[in-house]
């Protein structure tokens, strides 16, 4: 069924339910014995129209036995029942499934926020209008540096131009737009100039994350940042954070950037009540879904050892509450740290930081 035919299946509604909670950040974790996830990150398909050299899951071809439409809609209902407030669809490239708009509509009908992350390569006016009609609220477009470096990393000539065009199509359709950028040896020097191009493109937030040695990136050592590069990087990020505030853009440093350095308040003070990194929320306030129904605490954690189990076999609640792979971060404490981390003043909130790095 093609996208145009799927759009005709969307019920015409005057107004979609207003989701509870905010999609601007994760709330504090409740004191319940088993916390409830507030954010679900869902790889709707592993199929992709680009072949990025830094792709962690090596996207390109759909996984075997990906969830069908009916299964996706049932899983949406279970996410809502578990207490999820926002669902972010990713890929691969989520829009390569024409039924992605049915999933978006179901998310909104169940009272949750619907957001999406995309490379934007084939996100034209029709797809942009369809996803906004379905109820998507905000879309993040991946733009990795200036045009020459972006196109090399994405392995597609013209990818950078198409990504910026996607921002325009989405804004014209009525969606909020944000951007996300990989920082690596190629893009590190591009960030200030890129910001000045993203601002007039209309983004309201910009997420930055370091390229880590996962998937294809592990085969491209030449793009990975080396330890000595981080000192200059954090000085630059502090200047970028100040400029973002001047432009009215929320800068979001991802967990892979590291924490508790001299610029922590500048980089994260507006995100957390304490002004510092609040610890990894994987399996505490976030849940992750692979396109075949595998449930994890974070999609950045590759390998079978991090798979909590199959949704088809166990259901979402049972995996969230009982799978050791999802409970890991809830039960991990500072007592498990060793070396410098064990003696660090920030050991308790940090607990060793992002487990994917």
CATH top level is Alpha Beta
Number of helices: 14
Would you tell me the overall average pLDDT?
A: 90
Helix fraction, binned, reads 25-40%
Radius of gyration: 20 Å
Which secondary structure elements does this structure contain, and how are they paired or packed?
Elements: H1 3-7, E1 39-43, H2 69-82, E2 86-90, H3 100-109, E3 113-118, H4 125-134, E4 138-142, H5 147-154, H6 159-173, E5 176-183, H7 191-198, E6 205-210, H8 229-247, E7 250-253, H9 264-268, E8 286-289, E9 294-296, E10 309-310, H10 311-314, H11 316-322, H12 324-331, H13 339-343, H14 347-350
Parallel strand pairs: 1-2, 1-8, 2-3, 3-4, 4-5, 5-6, 6-7
Antiparallel strand pairs: 8-9, 9-10
Kindly describe this structure.
The chain has 357 residues and is of the alpha/beta class. It has one domain (3-350): Alpha-Beta Barrel (TIM Barrel), CATH 3.20.20.70. Helix content is 34%, strand content 13%. It has 14 helices and ten strands. It has helices spanning 3-7, 69-82, 100-109, 125-134, 147-154, 159-173, 191-198, 229-247, 264-268, 311-314, 316-322, 324-331, 339-343, 347-350, and strands at 39-43, 86-90, 113-118, 138-142, 176-183, 205-210, 250-253, 286-289, 294-296, 309-310. Strands 7-6-5-4-3-2-1-8-9-10 form a ten-stranded mixed β-sheet. α8 links the parallel β6 and β7 (250-253). The termini are far apart. 42% of the residues are buried. The model is unreliable at 24-30 (pLDDT under 50).
């Amino acid at each position: 069924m093609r996208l145009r035919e799927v759009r005709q299946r969307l019920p015409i509604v005057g107004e979609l339910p207003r989701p509870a909670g905010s999609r601007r950040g994760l709330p504090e974790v409740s004191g319940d014995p088993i916390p409830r996830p507030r954010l679900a990150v869902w790889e709707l398909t592993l199929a992709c129209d680009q072949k990025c050299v830094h792709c962690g899951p090596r996207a390109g071809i759909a996984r075997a036995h990906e969830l069908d439409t009916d299964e996706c809609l049932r899983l949406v209902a279970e996410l809502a029942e578990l207490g999820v407030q926002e669902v972010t669809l990713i890929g691969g490239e989520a829009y390569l499934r024409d039924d992605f708009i049915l999933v978006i509509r179901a998310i909104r009908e169940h009272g949750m926020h619907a957001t999406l992350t995309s490379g934007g390569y084939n996100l034209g006016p029709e797809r942009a209008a369809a996803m906004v009609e379905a109820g998507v609220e905000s879309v993040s477009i991946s733009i990795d540096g200036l045009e020459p470096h972006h196109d090399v990393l994405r392995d597609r000539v013209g990818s950078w131009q198409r990504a910026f065009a996607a921002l325009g199509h989405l804004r014209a359709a009525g969606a909020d737009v944000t951007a996300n950028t990989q920082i690596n040896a190629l893009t590190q020097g591009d960030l200030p100039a890129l910001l000045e191009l993203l601002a007039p493109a209309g983004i309201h937030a910009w997420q930055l994350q370091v390229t880590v040695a996962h998937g294809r990136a592990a085969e491209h050592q030449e793009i990975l940042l080396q330890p000595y590069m981080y000192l200059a990087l954090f000085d630059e990020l502090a200047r970028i954070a100040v400029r973002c505030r001047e432009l009215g853009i929320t800068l979001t440093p991802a967990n892979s950037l590291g924490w508790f350095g001299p610029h922590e308040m500048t980089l994260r003070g507006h995100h957390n009540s304490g002004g510092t990194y609040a610890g990894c929320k994987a399996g505490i306030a976030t849940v992750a879904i692979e396109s075949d129904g595998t449930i994890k605490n974070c999609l950045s954690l590759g390998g079978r050892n991090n798979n909590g189990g199959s949704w088809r076999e166990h259901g979402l609640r049972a995996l969230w509450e009982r799978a050791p792979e999802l409970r890991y971060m809830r039960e991990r404490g500072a007592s498990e740290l060793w070396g410098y981390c064990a003696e660090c003043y920030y050991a308790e909130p940090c607990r060793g930081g992002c487990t994917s790095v």
